[in-house]
Amino acid sequence: MEIFLFILNSILFGVGLAMDAFSVSLANGLNEPKIKKGRMCIIAGIFGFFQFFMPLVGWICIHTIAKAFSSFQSFIPWIALVLLLYIGGKMLIEGIKNKDGDEETAAVGKRGLLLQGIATSIDALSVGFTIAGYQVEAAIGESLIIGIVTFIISFLGLILGKKFGTKLAGKASILGGIILILIGAEIFIKGVFF
Fold first, then answer.
1. Which of 189, 181, 190 is nearest to 24 (CA)?
2. How confident is the model at residue 103 (pLDDT cuts 50, 70, 90)?
3. CA-to-CA distance for 55 and 71, rounded, in angstroms?
4. Neighbours of 105 (CB within 10 A)
5. Residues 6 or more apart from 104 whose CB is under 8 A from it?
6. Share of the chain above pLDDT 70, in %
7. SS in 3 state form for 53-71?
8. How far apart, in whole angstroms, are the C-alpha atoms of residue 128 and residue 60?
C-alpha cells in the first residue's frame, strides 16, 4: 500500500508540474504543424528530463546549500518570465512577419528548446523541498516518475498542437507565442503574488 501511495503521489506531482510543459508543447506543435515523431520525442524528452532533473537539484540543495537555495527561490518567477517572454516574443514576431502563412514557420531551435525546458521546470526545484525527507533512492524514483509523466503529457501536447497547427496555418506561430507569454505571466504572478 505504501508503494502504491508513493507512485500515486509521484504521478500526481508529475501531472501538476507537467501542465506548463504541456502548454509549451502545444505551442510548439502549433508553431511546427509538420513536426515529425522523432522531433516530438526529442522535445518531450527535453521537458521530461528537466522535470526529472530539477526536483533532484532541489533535493540536493536542501541537503547541502539550503540557505542559498531559499534566497534563490524568489528569483524563479522572474527567470521563467524572462525566458518565456523571450521565446514567446520571438515566435510572435515571426508569426506577425509571416501573417499570410506563405512560408513555413521556423521550428524552435536547440537553444530555444533548452530554454523552454528550464523555464517550464524551474518551479519543480521546489519539489526538492517536499521530498527532502526521502532517502536518495526514493527521491530519484519520484523524480523519474515525474519525468516520465511529463514526457507523456508533453508528447500529447505536441500531438494536439500539430493537429490544430495544420488547421491554423500562418496564425499558429502567433498563437504559440501568445501562449508562451501567458504561461510566463502566469508563472510570474503565481510565484510573486501567491
1. 181
2. very low
3. 17
4. 24
5. 34
6. 83
7. HHHHHHHHHHHHCHHHHHH
8. 7
